[in-house]
Task: structure prediction
Amino acid sequence: MNSVILIAGTRYLAGLLLIFSIYMLLRGHNEPGGGFIGGLIGSTGFVLFAIACGTADARRALRIAPQTLAMAGLGIALLAGLISVIFGDPFFTGQWLFLGASDSEKGLPISTVLAFDIGVYLVVFGSVLTLVFAMEEEI
Amino acid sequence: MTVMKSRNDAFGLLPVGLALLLFVWFLTFLPEVSDGKAIRYAMDWIPSLGITLSFLIDGLSLTFALLITGIGSLVFLYSNSYLSGHEHFVRFMLFLFSFMLSMLGVVLADNLIALFVFWELTTITSYLLIGFGHENETGRRSALQALLVTGAGALAMLAGFILLGMTFGSFELSEILLKSEELKVHSLYSVILILILAGTFTKSAQFPFHFWLPNAMAAPTPVSSFLHSATMVKAGIYLMARLHPAFSGTNLWLWTLTIFGVVTAVIASILALRQTDLKQALAYTTLMALGTLTLFLGQESGYAVTAFATFLIVHSLYKAALFLVVGCIDHAAGTRDANILGGLGRVMPFTAVAAGLAAMSMAGFPPFLGFIGKELKYAGALGVASEPIFVSGAVLIANSLMFAVAGVVAFRPFWMSERSNLPREPHEVSAPMLAGPIILAILGTFFGIYPDILQRALVAPTVASLLGNIEDSKDLKLWAGVNVPLLLSVMTVFLGLLFYWQHRRLRNILIVVIGRAPSFDRGWDRILDGLKGFAAWQTQILQSGSLYHYMFVTFATMLLSLSVAIFLKPMEITLPDHWVISWQGIALILLIIGGTLITTVTASRITAMASLGVVGIGVAMIFIGFSAPDVAITQLLVETLVVVLVAVALLRLPTLESEVGNRRPIDAVLAFGVGLTVTVILLSVLSQPLDLRLTEFFEITSWPEAYGRNIVNVILVDFRALDTFGEIAVVVVAALSSYALLRTTHPVSSDQGEQR
Result:
């Protein structure tokens, strides 16, 4: 598709969508959002990019093959589930670390649950893009 | 190449060392086990199903473990030279070592389910090893045949195990074996026995499942030596021996094992004489040995079981040695054809000596261990509970034919007839290749001269594992006085010499006779072809390749099953009390209905797609109305992406009009039917009181236990993370497979096409 308006708009929209997707991913534990939704939003950004500028450019902008991202996501999710075994808990038990926590402050929560959600994000993101790119290139 | 070589050495010696360490470790159990003690280790595996990872070391399992690790380390050493420089050498060693560990698992496991898992691991590693030369079609076929035959038997065996475990409430062998009396009168006894025997007979290649074993000789020689003579094929024998205390003593056990054993032994020894390929000949003598072992396991007398234990060890020693010798011959002369080979004794003196010692043990000459084994076999055969004359006669024929085969395999190629045109100029093989055959052959001689060492260390404890009492073990003696077994031994030698002298003429007769008999191997092919034909036939009916057809069948099935369910079990439907819907709600419903109508009547695919998107977005709005933002967002995004995806695909397709034609009325009926039944079901679901237990649980625990306020997300990534993991795995697999599908339809340039 060769539309100047779309290309110009995409330049800002794609970036905004990516940032928004990460925002949705991170806030997911307490507010609506999470890995699934974040991954979908993020992939929408790149789908837009692919429609406006072509899949070759979109692939170049992504740098990593989408299927690799999806597999990496699956690996991260699995690792996040396996970590609990080190602490003697059953698989996929969430492990939490509150950085700088004091009696009054909760601190910055870091958890395997977040890592798992990032894995979900990457899986959804990579899988959707794998499909869309392949179909766009096919047709 | 030099780099390759040094890598080989490093990787090659590692398994040798590990196997040797394991062997020494198992040796340390010897003093305790020789006293008739059993050592048990256990750890929980799947406690909810009563499955433990428990191991039992007693006489029987220790004998097997020592054979596996001992012969294993020699075979690893041998493989270093035999496959030196092979491009897949490391892979081969990995397969072989994995096999050894699985086999150890089989013989040490005390839990039936754990045993089954290890059993299947040996099947799989054996598949990989037989198919090691995967460029070769015979190799692939043999590998698959072995996998299917033993795999099918193993499935039957698993059913038997589960029945056994459920009957007695325990999967622990050590507990089941104590309930022998209870088992033998149980109504399921014969079912369990037949199912388990299906597994052991296929694994140990008893007639009529024998055909896969000679075919498995497509594997490299170290594999044939290790798996297909010394260890894996004896897994079935092991299991029968392990279950002997619980199952033996009934007529079913006695006669099944006797008949299958005798038939296998006799047929195999006749077929062995027919072969000109040395490896094939040895494969058939292995079958004969397996038959004999099965036959003796059918009995309960001390002689028969001592014969079993002794022959088990004897056979592993000499047969592994002979297979390795044949590998040496093949390596040195480039052929295994008995008709061409000859006069190798002068150029390969060490191989010849090892072959001679092993063959004399196999033929049963004194003072080799094979002689003692043979004497015991006769003593055992004469004392069987089933037809002793018939059994002894069968054993006599089988033994004399083995005598002849031993001559053909290990005497003739070295000492008879001058060397004719060999494909390669023969030479003596290297020391690592000689180590295996020589050590094994010497052990066979040593134990023949000092049989009481072997008896005290391994034979008596093994007998004790089967019969429960170490006193039942009979003595291993070189000279037992003039008795019937000795007489039969003398007859064996005469008959054997006769067979050997006439073996060419006999072979020619056999080739003609066997050529006329039905071949099980070809029968197997016919069964497989039949299966494939059936699969192709039913696939053609069910898989038309038309998406319309699939959708129609799916929805018609759904409609049918749902309406049958509603009809058979009418549910009470109470309509909701208040039908008041907000004006926004009414607007949404109108939007959805409008979208649906446009989708069904339009002739343009793009319009249909877009209006379907309207329906989806309408549904998402309803979710928002019920304050389910996560679901709504997901629904919205998925709708958007689907429209984009399908729009891309639609660009290429023609308009709808050319396709729909006169299918519309019946489609409409189906659509209304599905809609109606689903509505009825939903209404009846709503009529049930809402169970809020789970909701409440998640509401209460989400924040204190999982530190999250968004319950939907907390459920996804924490409470039910394993489910989510399964789902994202499905997503990846779906994406990758559709990627692969899209790629294969892509035109491939000619040079890439050739690379495939």
In short: Residues 112-138 of chain A form the longest helix (27 residues). Helices of chain A lie at 4-27, 35-53, 55-62, 66-86, 112-138. Residues 99 and 108 of chain A are 5 Å apart (CA to CA). Residues 4-138 of chain A form one domain.
